[in-house]
């Protein structure tokens, strides 16, 4: 039986789903559909195969997301290989790194590459398509999956399929790839019946991909091979060499390899496409998320503390406060702790322009949530002024912040729940519920949770500069260079 390794790419920032999705905590890490994040749902999508030996996934991700991804997998009790990209270089290098990892022990498994931020509601149909793909990949082909379109969508690229590649299965040779069309062209594609949405799902044997990328883009393979060879294991993570990987060209799987397969060059594998009807969505913007969520009789979707009156086809999300909508239609309203978005459903693709504007203005709301996750837990900046900041901090049982020092701020800690072990210069002592302690400016200090319940505390910072970069770190059990 052929072994299958899912390769899950988790590097996007999802700016069109701002303000919920942000650069430091993007959409694939959010629970947008149900209790699981999109990443967790992608991992679970491989459950239930009867005829496939599916191995733990390889997750290729940005270093920024490594601890959150590891925690989400830990909660699921799932094993995986987490492969860290020091910089983003698009999908072709990411898949190349995954193929090198998959073949490192001498194996040659079939890889199923999936973006981490897609939704598939019909798992049975997805599994059936994967089984077809296994047969094709076993024969040495590179397979992609095209979504059977039901609307003239202008936000997706398309794949035109040609003649049958397998007379016993609905598997086709690829005729051509086309970019995102205008409305009239998209309608013509829908009417023709020979075009599929380009899903970004791929399947092939690991050695086949390495051979193909070597022949099509030897520069990518060389850079990835060097980065892999100079890399190292780092706890739960595999790091490739940053300097070598920075030299790697950026390119997509489609441009680097798939479009070159259309010439039927005998030196390259065949490229085939399998039509897929499985309730797929790339959840690329608020209107596409509205499409896949359950609605009331007026077409409204609401999440959180929301009241609607005389509204139609409206999507409202509240994270913190009551959101009341009256007499509106085709509007998206998203409330978070530090930002509120109001956008017409026809303009949701343009939300990324707001994010660009925030970045140009140097505002943190474009890339950072008020609540920030760390490997030890999280903190929420609940208030701030010119010379003070108040944070709510939660530390997981057994976790510890780094041993550190600040040049420009002092800190007061008040324990609300649990017990804190505090290091302050040479002192080590416990602080329990309703007790407090003071960390003077310039003092070496560390906060730990020695207990079995989460440690919750309030931190009051005061000083001339309160930025997160005012940290001198001496020791860190997580091996971080960031905060």
From TrEMBL:
It comes from the Bacteria. Residues 362-476 form the Mannose-6-phosphate isomerase type II C-terminal domain. Residues 311-358 form the MannoseP isomerase/GMP-like beta-helix domain. Keywords: GTP-binding, Isomerase, Nucleotide-binding, Nucleotidyltransferase, Transferase. GO terms for molecular function: GTP binding; isomerase activity; mannose-1-phosphate guanylyltransferase (GTP) activity. Belongs to the mannose-6-phosphate isomerase type 2 family. PANTHER family: MANNOSE-1-PHOSPHATE GUANYLYLTRANSFERASE. This is mannose-1-phosphate guanylyltransferase.
